[in-house]
Amino acid sequence: MRFTLAALALLLLAGCFPRGSAKPPVVRTPQAPAPAHHEAPPPLAPLEAPQVTVRTVSGITFNGIAFDSRKHRLVVVDQARGPGSEFADSAAAARSIGGIAAINAGFFTPDGRPLGGVVSSGKPAGSWNQSSSLGSGAWFETTAGNSALARRGRIVRGKNLRELIQAGPLLIESGSGVGGLEATKVSARSLILWDGGSRWWIGRSSPCSLAALGQSLAIGPPAGWPVEYALNLDGGRSSDLWISDRVAGGPVLIRPPWNRPVRNFLVLVAR
Length: 271
Known about the structure:
Elements: H1 5-14, E1 51-57, E2 60-68, E3 72-78, H2 90-95, E4 101-104, E5 118-120, E6 123-125, E7 137-142, E8 147-151, E9 161-167, E10 170-173, E11 176-177, E12 187-194, E13 199-208, H3 210-219, E14 229-232, E15 241-243, E16 252-254, E17 264-270
Antiparallel strand pairs: 1-2, 2-13, 3-17, 4-15, 4-17, 5-6, 5-9, 7-8, 7-9, 10-11, 10-14, 12-13, 12-14, 15-16
């Protein structure tokens, strides 16, 4: 059989490939680069151990304890039968539940009833103070374990509250000093401070007016970090601060002999 040159060329080309149908080559499409992620939030600062602080700002001396709420928390110790019915002072109240520090808390009436709302371990007492400056703010902890300071109009009351002390006036709010504070009456003050995150401070100031106290806190915070919220607690003859010797810088006891028994306390305990 004769082959044309063209047919011979085709046969030669066919011999260069393996028999059977070859699979087409796999073509891989380059993938688009992954979208950039948002920058991760900075890690939380290391847990800080409670520490005694003493600082004088604008002639006002602050004695207290700074702590990290991720490791320690405040609880309300309330005396249902009235001031002094169970605990003579902050030290006794703190030791009753294994606390490492305590300070007197809310205001109370002459007959010993809370002047404002109180919640202790989910149990409410007193009545909500709707108008007085002595109830303009509150410290609270939710059942989820989150604590904060806030103006009374921003607090949602209900079953989600595990602890609460209503007091006032607010001294610092959203990082700024509160205007219109009383400027003539001088007395020892009990107070609680918060940086808006996990740093807290409870303590006592030397005698001063509320206006001077607010100005001092705005100038030089007692614990070294900026104060986002500050709340005045019951002061004067009620002011009572105790810190255990288990705390760096302790023990501390500031309670003059002329002090009177109080209705409730804020006690610092480990989580």
